[in-house]
Amino acid sequence: MWLLAVLARLQPAAESQAEDESSLRRLASGDQAAAARLYDRHARPLYSLILRILGNETEAEDVLQEVFAQAFCQASRYDARRGAVAAWLLTIARSRAIDRLRARRTRVEARTGEQTLGEMPDAQPDAASTMLDEERSRLVRQALGELPMLQRMAIELAYYEGLSHSEIAERLEQPLGTVKTRIRLGLLKLRDVLTEGLA
Amino acid sequence: MTAHEELKANAAGYVLGSLDPEERRAFESHLSGCAECAEEVASLRPVVGALATAVPQVTPRAELRARVLAGAASGQAQSRRSAWETRVGGWLPLAAAIIIAVGAGVYAVRLQRQIGELQARFDQAQATTAVLAAPDLARIDLQGQQVAPDARARALWSRSRGLVFTAANLPPAPAGKAYQVWVVTAQAPISAGLLTPDPSGAGTQFYMTPADIAPPVAVAVTLEPAGGVPAPTGERFLVGMP
């Protein structure tokens, strides 16, 4: 029955979204208090994602700052029809963090796949973390963990490492077609697991 | 495998952002016309979104909040200012104050001079107008002499209101020399005053003449030592008779 809980938690509550939209509108008209409210509501999940991708606290802090700067700057361009504010912010965060990661790769020797295939970074969840974030995160990770190992690895390499299909094929020493299929099957299965309860 | 199936295999990679640029362009153009692929993409978006939250949750350091919000405030303000303003912003107000202070002083002096000049020009213009409107106006045209055959001039004279003298095509006066205008009466030539033409050789000047002056028999311009002389000594440049 945890699936129902996942579904309930995956979508931000309607009032949260309404408050976020209102904050963005006020921000676009220069209200600095709205910026603080957006930070307080979203900094933690955004920082967590960025830290997961970069694995370095200093860099993660820099990128979090960039993400909010971009979001504050583009507040007037946010379009609610394309998704919740939380998802919009997470997309910016992921994109910025992957950009940083790719820039780092061009400087340093490419990280080996083994590090990626290991467990997630050893970040200790904060004691003051909200139960909501914690629970949502745990449930999605649980769903991800139910995927076949190679599907899960391919998805993680693509999403958290920003690798292209061909790069993943190289890392996993597998044909490109096989990687594409694994990623697709993995995401479809994840989708089914996460939405099963609705049917 | 059909082209559609081949492209559909890229739907997941498209949502994940893991397609190579060329693959992505090909899929995007296919996507706009393929409902099946569009549906799969739409259904996978929330799944990929969920991946964003499937990480250990960590609270950022408290100091970061102030940094982000300060950056946001200055970033918003900065986007409204040009880079130039930002660069010189520190000393700009002081520099502006100095420039304004110095400028105001210079301006005051210049303004005073301009007012003086304008007043003189106004007085002269008013006098000229008065001469032109005088009931006893006499007109005397002057011809260039041998030294300045192209020079021309006209004298408008009213016993009661004075003399307006306008010259053209006068050669530049040599250093230490000046043009002097004479009203020649039957008794003697009387100096009206000096004439300083502009670089083109033209000049207009108003002179008061003595009210008891005898009727002029001629008007002449001679080149004299700078500052003028009581009686003509130099070469005649312009001569005219009523």
C-alpha termini separation of chain A? 13 Å
CATH topology of the largest domain in chain A: Rna Polymerase Sigma Factor, Chain: A
Mean pLDDT of chain A: 79
What overall form of chain A do the CA principal axes indicate?
globular
Structural class of chain A: mainly alpha
Description:
The complex is a heterodimer of chains A (199) and B (242). Chain A is mostly helical and 199 residues long. Chain A has 2 domains: 1-111, Rna Polymerase Sigma Factor, Chain: A; 146-199, Winged helix-like DNA-binding domain superfamily/Winged helix DNA-binding domain (Arc Repressor Mutant, subunit A). In chain A, 73% of the residues lie in helices and 0% in strands. Chain A is built from 10 helices and no strands. In chain A, helix 1 crosses helix 7, helix 3 packs across helix 5 and helix 8 crosses helix 10 (176-195). Chain A is globular. Residues 110-129 of chain A have low confidence and may be disordered. Chain B has 242 residues and is α+β, with helices and mostly antiparallel strands. Among the domains of chain B are: 3-53, Arc Repressor Mutant, subunit A (Orthogonal Bundle); 138-240, Immunoglobulin-like. Chain B has 7 helices and 8 strands. The longest helix of chain B is centred in the middle third of the chain and has 41 residues, at 92-132. Chains A and B meet through helix 3, helix 4, helix 5, helix 7 and helix 8 of A and helix 2, helix 4 and helix 5 of B.
